[in-house]
Amino acid sequence: MAKVTVTLDADLAIEVMLLAGVRSPQDAVELIVRDYLARGHRTEARTGEAGDGSRVTQDRPIVQEG
Fold this sequence. Notes:
This protein has 2 helices and no strands. The chain has helices at residues 10-20, 25-47. It is elongated and about 70 Å long.
């Protein structure tokens, strides 16, 4: 897997480390990003993708009474 270097403000890195409960800023940011992506995938699985037009239709079935 390719590696990317990202520069963060020290206060932000420390806050992420505290939230993630790890001692390494690298591990903390990786955990936060992985969690963010997993939440996005779970949301898509529940609601469908934005381009999923088959879920929203303008044609409603006609209900016959009687």
